[in-house]
Amino acid sequence: MPVKKHLVKLSAPERASLEKVSQSNRRSVREKTRARILLASDQNVGSEEGVSLSDGELAKRFKVSSPTVSNIRRRASERGVVESIRRSEQKHRKARKLDGRQEAQLVALTCSAPPEGRAQWSLVLLRERLVEMQVVEHIGLETIRTTLKKTRLSHG
Hints:
- This protein is mainly alpha-helical.
- It folds into 2 domains: 12-84, no CATH class; 100-151.
- 53% of the residues lie in helices and 0% in strands.
- The model has no long low-confidence stretch (mean pLDDT 87).
């Protein structure tokens, strides 16, 4: 049997906090499962004199995979027990190009009457009008397209 690299030894306040999370109705199922796994893998209150259950046994008990159990224990040793049950923020998430007010102006413009001589708005016309109205300095056609796609507009 391989030796566990990251051992979980909970203090009394950490244990109380995890028990509260595991019984909470306001937490996600994922967070409650993580808390229960950490409680079960605690070395201080193990099944036999400080020896906790193996990853495979914990995985079967909580209906997760063995790597999930080891990853939860690793995160608990790196980030702290209470922080390890929450999902970490995405590090490489791109900032939005348009905020809510700008999106609302784009939708309002799209729903308005198209320019003279046109049957409907094109992405290029929308881009030019948004720059002309000083909603944005510059914007890509793909940003306009994806923003309008999210709104589920129906032009009848």
